[in-house]
Write a structure and sequence with these properties.
This protein is an alpha/beta fold and 280 residues long. The protein has a domain of 177 residues: 3-Layer(aba) Sandwich (Undecaprenyl pyrophosphate synthetase), CATH 3.40.1180.10. 50% of the residues lie in helices and 12% in strands. The chain is built from 9 helices and 6 strands. A 6-stranded parallel β-sheet has the order 3-4-2-1-5-6, with helices on both faces. The structure holds farnesyl diphosphate.
Length: 280
């Protein structure tokens, strides 16, 4: 048997520990995967990624370290959802309210987003993922807008998972924008009489939301234990199952995602009726 001494021994031990950890993680993921019914995955998962700041605070690190670790979680979740064949994944990355944060944190978040887009775009594209952004993107810094536009243009013909990043997003503002878009469209094409008789329908609203064309989220995940929807996709989550986990976003990994899927599959979805609708 090979024995290592001193520094070499310490490194050897660290490698053995890392391998063990990897095996444990893989075992946990395999156990969770085995319990999942692959024919009953949600079509659209929406995630409120919360707890980056607290994760950093607990480690006596600056808040930005939590955001950096949060990007690693986002990367893992995006890749896992694409592999599982989820149709759409929406990540709440920056809300309209987030402008209230210190300027340095906002600038760091914008830089991080640009860094992510630049580094990950080739991988996103290679995985046939189509990127889109929801929110008032026109109010974002020019550099961020350019990177987003480049990403959306490159991936626009991809037929795999839709990755939707909510940036400068607020659900009430989305509804205001949708109603105004309905009005503008009607004003442009209708006669005065038709305009006076205009009645808004649910379909008209859905068709003018930022998410038009996407299925509504059927699973909403929120990390860090907060039980709020925080102005996120208020219209679209009408029938979504909500999974709240106390895990902080930087600790949310593939196994935690699989747990959320298991939780989703344990729910009986009745849409206000008395039994689940027949599956088509
Ligand atoms: C909330 O943590 C998280 C955010 C403000 C969003 C930032 C998200 C990321 C950096 C993930 C990256 C996403 C993509 C798409 C690359 P918080 O700061 O509110 O945490 P706290 O409540 O503990 O303070």
């Amino acid at each position: 048997m090979l024995t290592l001494s001193g520094k070499e021994g310490d490194r050897g031990l660290a490698i053995v520990k890392a391998i063990e950890l990897l095996k444990t993680k893989q075992r946990e993921e395999a156990r969770l995967l085995e319990q999942l019914d692959t024919s009953r995955f949600p079509q659209h998962i929406a995630i409120i990624m919360d707890g980056n700041g607290r994760w950093a605070q607990r480690r006596r690190l600056p808040r930005i370290a939590g955001h950096r670790a949060g990007v690693a979680s986002a990367r893992q979740v995006i890749e896992s959802c694409a592999r599982l064949g989820i149709r759409a994944l929406t990540l709440y990355a920056f809300s309209l309210e987030n402008w209230r944060r210190p300027k340095t944190e906002i600038e760091f978040l914008m830089r991080l987003l640009r860094e992510y887009l630049r580094k990950e775009l080739p991988i996103i594209h290679k995985n046939n993922i189509r990127l889109s952004v929801i929110g008032r993107a026109e109010e974002l810094p020019a550099g961020v807008r350019e990177d987003i536009e480049r990403g959306m243009a490159l991936t626009s013909s991809n037929s795999g998972m839709r990755l939707v990043v909510a940036l400068n997003y607020g659900a009430r503002t989305e509804l205001v924008d949708a109603f105004n878009a309905v009005l503008e469209e009607t004003r442009a094409h209708a006669t005065n009489g038709e305009l006076a008789r205009l009645r808004v329908t649910e379909q008209m609203i859905s068709d003018h939301l930022y998410t038009a064309g996407l299925p509504d989220p059927d699973l909403l995940i929120r990390t860090s234990g907060e039980q709020r929807v925080s102005n996120f996709l208020l219209w679209q989550i009408a029938y979504a199952e909500i999974h709240v986990t106390s895990v902080l976003w930087p600790d949310f990994n593939r196994a935690r995602l699989l747990e959320a899927l298991l939780d989703f599959q344990s729910r009986e979805r009745r849409y206000g009726g008395i039994q689940p609708p027949p599956s088509n």
